[in-house]
Structure formats: C-alpha cells, structure tokens
Amino acid sequence: MQKYWTVFRVNWQNALQYRGPTAISILGNLLHILVLLYLWNAIYQSEQSLGDYSLSDLITYYILQLLINSMVLSYISWQIGTEIREGSFSNFLIKPVNYLHYWFTINLSGKLFEGLMISVVGLIMAGVLADYITLPDNLTTALHFAFAMILGAILAFEFDFAIGILAFWLVQIDSFKYMLQYGMFFLAGALLPLDLFPMLFQQIAHALPFRFMVYFPIRIFLGKETQPYEGFMIAGLWIVGLYFILQFGLKRGITRYEAAGK
Amino acid sequence: MGQTLRRYFALYRSFLSHNLKNEMMYRVNFAINVGLDIFFTTVNVIFFAILYGNIETVGGWTFHQTLILVGTVGIVREMAYLTFRKGFLELGEYVRTGNFDVMLTTPMSTASHLAFRHVSLTESLGEGLMGLVLVGYGFSHLDQATWISIPFYVLMLFNSLAIYYGFCLMVSSLVFWLIKSQELNTVIYYFMNTARYPRDIYHGLGKAFFTFLIPSSLIATTPATLLTGKIDAPLMALSLFVAAGLLSLGLFIWTRSLNHYGSASS
User: Fold this and answer.
1) What is the ipTM of this complex?
2) pLDDT for B121-153, tens place per residue?
3) A168, A172, B2, B218: least buried by Cβ within 10 Å?
4) Any idea where the domains of chain A sit in the sequence?
5) In chain B, what residues touch A49 (CB-CB under 8 Å)?
6) To probe the interface with A, which of B32, B66, B171, B186 has the most A CB atoms within 10 Å?
7) How far is A25 from chain B (nearest CA, A)?
8) Model-level pTM?
C-alpha cells in the first residue's frame, strides 16, 4: 500500500506543476458546454422540448457532464500505449508493482486533482446559472449520486486501461483508440442523454455498461432514478468481472511484449 | 507587392510539393486518417439526427440547413490544413526544442514559414470530402436554393479561413510563455467544433462574445446563410470586418510575442 501512496503523491505533485495547462483545457471544455447551454436555451425558447427534460434539467445535465469529464472519464490509455510501444514498460517487469494497480493510482490522483479544479468552475457556473439548476431534494439522492460517480470512475478507468493495453497486440493504434473512446463516450450519454436516442439505439445503449459512466449518475442527480440499486449491482458486477479480465489480459500481453527499443 | 505575393506563392508551391511527396510515402496512414475523419463527422451528423428526431428547428435552422453548417466546418478545416494549421499544432515542439530558431532566420516572414512548414492535403481530407458531400446533400434539399449563392459561399469560406487564422495566431502566441502548445490547440479545436452550431442560438452578451472575442459563430453560419438563399448583407459585412480586425490583431500580438521566445538549447 505504501508504494502506491508514493505513486499517488508523486503524480499529484506532477499535476500541480502543470496546473496552467490543466486550467486551459478546462477552459476549452467550458467553451463547448457554454455553447450547448445556448443551444438548449434557443430550443426551449422556441417552445420545443426534449424528452422528459425541462430546460434546467438539461442545463444541469451538461454542467454535470463537465464535472464528469474531469472527475470520471479516464484518458490514461495514451500514456499506457506509448509506454508499451516505446519499451519503457520494461521498467515495470522488474518492479514489485502491479501495472493495473499502478495506473489505477495514477488515474485516481489525476482525477482528484482535476476534480478539485473543475469543482471550483462548476460551483461558479452553478452560482451564475442558479435559476436553471436542478438540485437533488434529499440526502439519499446526493449519496446515490456520489456512489454512482465512484462506480463510473472505476469502470471508465477499466475500459480505458483495456484500450491502453491493446498496444501489446496492435502497434499503431492511436486512431483506432480515438474511435473506441469516442464511441464509448457517445454510448455513455456524454453528448446527448440516452433516452433521446431512437428506440433501437436506446436498447443497445441500455444493454452496454458505458451508460454507468455518464448517463446513470446524472439521471440519479436529476431525481429520475430513485431506485438505482439494480444499476449499482450491474455496474459492480462489470467492475469485478473486468478486473479479472484485465489481469488476465495483462498477463497474456506481457508474453507478447517485445521491449522495443530496449 | 505583386512581386512579394508571387514569391510567396512560389514558396507555398515548393513547400506543398515537398510535403505531398512525404505524405504519399505513408499510404496506410492516409487511409487511417480519412477513415477517422469520416467516423467523427458521422458521429456529428448522428448527434444532429438524434436532436432533430426530437425537435423541428434549432434557432430557425432545419436539419438540412444544419448539415450545411457541419459540412462547412469540415471544408474550412481542410482549407486550413492546406494553408497553415499543422505548423501551429507543432509549434510547441519547435519552441521547446529551440528549432523555432530556423523560422526566425529564414528569408521569409516567421508566421508564413510556420504556416507553410507542414501544409497537408491528407490530414483532414476525410472531413473535407465529407463536408462537400454534406453541403451538397443539404443544398439539394433546400426549398429556395439558387446557384447564384455559390460564389458568395466560396468567397465567405475564404473569409472564414482568415478568421480561423487570426484566432490561431492570437491563441498560439501564448506558446512563448507556456512552452507547450497541446492545450492551446485543444482550445482552437473546440473553437472550430463549436462553429457548427448556428449563430442564431446566441443572444445578448453571448452573441457579442462569440462574434468579437471568440468569433466561432461566424465561421460556418456566414457562408451557410448565404448558401441557403438569404443574401444577408449586414452579416457578410460583419464577417469581413471581424476577419480584417482579427487578422491585424493576431499578427500584432504574434509579432510582439516573438520577443518572448527563449531560443532553448542555443
């Protein structure tokens, strides 16, 4: 445990050093959300509406999506892919750390750091848009939401890690990774709430676990999912199942590893 | 003036042919780039298709008109890759390693050398082609489309390119302080991504913000408005004015920022 705590601390300090760039990328994201808020506003001004969402529901949805993008969604696969491709993965073969746990720790500290920064932005936005925010009306909902966020973050990490270690089998896959990641976020409900999709797509998205990363926590927050226990259980099963699959995949991957450039 | 223009045109041609030869060497890469672009543009179209499955219009724009917006962004992006975009993507690397020295010392303007350094036909070709298809498809489904609007459309495409370039110069000037351009490029990427929503969704302060400070609302909406048959003279004038202003301001800030270049490792 001690060694992972050290990894956590080192990465935290690293993140602190790059707070400027982090702030700028948050700014970019903020810009996109701002435009979407105008988009929803224009739609509701012309007396149209989307599904069972009120304007404040939708605005809340996208502000939460901004938080989730920083606190839940994982982007570590880029570094993992590079490490495997360029051979610095070799260092881990002789270290007494588990590669999966190591990256889980790095991701955790990164997400917490970004989460702190984005929370400030989120609070300011929520303050400015106070009239357009739907807040949970009881503590249970808030707790459900927090728990769903944690589950979502673990799942997002596991899927991203899976994409990262694909590099053992496929050498140049950056573009493929882009597609996988983007397709996953789309099916998670990051661009549009899933219940606005045509029926067939809704059913597909519902059968897949990606919705637990974005759509599910936000629905809880909006009070549209008061009995989320079944969802918690399914997400939990996915997390445990994926954990074993990833450990197995990692083992298989190492036997394929060629230590390029070393 | 004429002579300078001719010289730069010749320079552009030699940079382009050099880069094309380079790109031809990696055919698989080319296929992947095109595939990736088609994928992303398709997802964007799906986004709007789902949205329009629930509603009729967005800020007065129908689905087919919106396809013209999405396509226009793709076309402007490809034009940008053919003229300047890639150099800015690599700028952080040049500044960090000190390779930017070369651009300061060659006998052509620094901004142009950076722009022409890596002009690329294939980097965004998929999105450009998809863009043409979308614009064509949208155009053929319009009620009051006229062929006369096409030259205006093309003219305003170049104007949008100028706005894009001015914005790029302005934002990228920060690189001399940050010594990293990845995040700046993310901002520029979002700038173009938000351009595909119609300008009519903004009002009040937001409208001013997305017109003068971050003029993304003009990039696609101005050309697309003209193509959909409305000859909106005030909008055209506004776009021309913003392009001229932003280009001048961008060049001014860029030239000033060059003083801050540290010339690492020399």
Assistant:
1) 0.85
2) 888 889 999 999 999 999 999 887 788 889 999
3) B2
4) 2-256
5) 55
6) B186
7) 5
8) 0.86
